[in-house]
Amino acid sequence: MSKRTIPVTQVRLGMHIHALEGPWISHPFWKTRFVLTDPEDLQKLVHSGVPGVVIDVSKGVDVQEAAEPPVAPRAAAPAPAVVAVPPAAPRKASGPPPEPSCSMADELSQAKAIYRQSREQVTSMFAEARLGKAIDAEECLPLVNDIADSVFRNPGALVSLARLKTQDDYTYMHSVAVCALMVALGKQLGLDEAACREAGLSGLLHDLGKAVMPQDVLNKPGKLTDDEFTIMKSHPVRGFEMLQEARGAPEGAMDVCLHHHERIDGTGYPHKLPGDKLSLLARMGAVCDVYDAITSNRPYKAGWDPAHSIAQMAGWKGHFDTVVFQAFVKSLGIYPVGSLVKLKSGKLAVVTEQNPKNLVSPLVKVFFSSKSQLHITPTVLDLSQSNDQIVSRESPEAWGFKDLDALWAGDLPKR
């Protein structure tokens, strides 16, 4: 057999780490399958609290072949040539996520490419799950990394773009949207970079159970019957069971999959858990899942305007964790990208980018005069540098606007 389990004190440079034992939360690395080449990573691993690892000797050195001496545990007798390193603090396996480095306009082109790529990959993943094939969660990591990197460069681009899904691809692109939203929310909550990526993976996999739901129920254009709703309410458990059989699925992802429909007041499903029994990731997943669901076009209803959705969610008492929801609003803005707003001047505008230092004064693109009832030349306006200001959020449907997204997103990704 090429794989064997060894205690962490026997790990040497040159070994191929196939899996880490113990809970995911204590792992010092984002990936769990890699060749260990960095002495600093070896020190992190030895002092992480992980009891053991699974190595693949067909892809790296075995215990007897390793040239490097073992790193002694902290409680062991002194060993030569070993430098004492303080144990790493919990969840500090990586530093904070990088600060935004791209404008909305610059990141949109990259985000569109990721959008197209992600649709293909997630569609394939759901198709394999529907056929009963075991999912390899680590195969999702490159996509999660691409999504997270985009969110780190500019949190508004991919998060906003992923909302623009069609009814036909809702199930697949909803997973991508929740992935991006989870990364942005994790960053706002102060999670480190590795934890933000774990949150993203949890979002990508949270609805896997829908792959085995009856298609006529999943895509029904009207209201579900009680029996149909009971079937749909089984998708968290089904997804959890699938992730238990998956390769490389972290505990956090399984937890979000199982509990993203729970509510803080204990009225959710499948286990009616109150807020103090829910993990941070599960509470994050609940907010991100609902926001993308209500802002997206579904088989049975049109999506709500982003700003209207935030306002509605704020009024749902007992549904969301207050601290998590407040952080979510800060990550998106009170008026998220794509929101239709009326200005004090009487002009209508669509929000194009957030101003992190002033959530009520985003960048907008002015395009319509409510006084003359005529379209005007679209002009970008930074409300933080203007005497004009938002006086209300407006309904695109009430005004008859059907192409607002093109005003901020330009040419939309081809589907």
From TrEMBL:
Family annotation (Pfam families): DUF3391, HD_5
Domain HD-GYP: 149-344
Annotated InterPro entries: DUF3391 (IPR021812), HD/PDEase_dom (IPR003607), HD_GYP_dom (IPR037522), HDIG_dom (IPR006675)
Region (Disordered) residue spans: 87-106
SUPFAM superfamilies: HD-domain/PDEase-like
Source organism, top-level taxon: Bacteria
Name of the protein: HD-GYP domain-containing protein
Organism of provenance: Ideonella oryzae
Lineage: Bacteria, Pseudomonadati, Pseudomonadota, Betaproteobacteria, Burkholderiales
